[in-house]
Amino acid sequence: MPCQRLLRVFIFVIVAASLAAARDIAVVSNKSNALGAITVADLIKVCKAQTTRWSDGKPVTFVMRSPSSPEMKMVLEKVYGMSESELNSLIVTSNHARTNHPAILVATSDEELVNTVASTPGAVGVVDVYSINSSVAVVKIGGKLPLEPGYLLHGN
Fold this sequence. Notes:
The chain is an alpha/beta fold.
């Protein structure tokens, strides 16, 4: 019986760890942006710095965590479709000509990311849903909000 108990504890720990590792990532926007929803194709353009201005003329700034962070693994796969080193190169080239208003900013924490989006007109970012506060607006992707079935950036 002690082996069965040990096996149950082991299975519980493995399941709990896998659930804890699954993250839902949300797209958040500066509240002054008129962005309530975005298509997957347009999100990819924003993330890759291919969209430089919103329809109201504000420059677009995309805020993200480091490409090497665990939070960004799903975004690398589902949005960028590129490796970490390719994304690092994209960040450098995208920001090269935009010294006053970078195309892509990298935040060191979710709190810094949310604060940067909240304080930068035209900014959007991707952040763990549990880090969202009232200073930013949550953006629908393809008509879905985080935690809804079929949401693009739903964790494993």
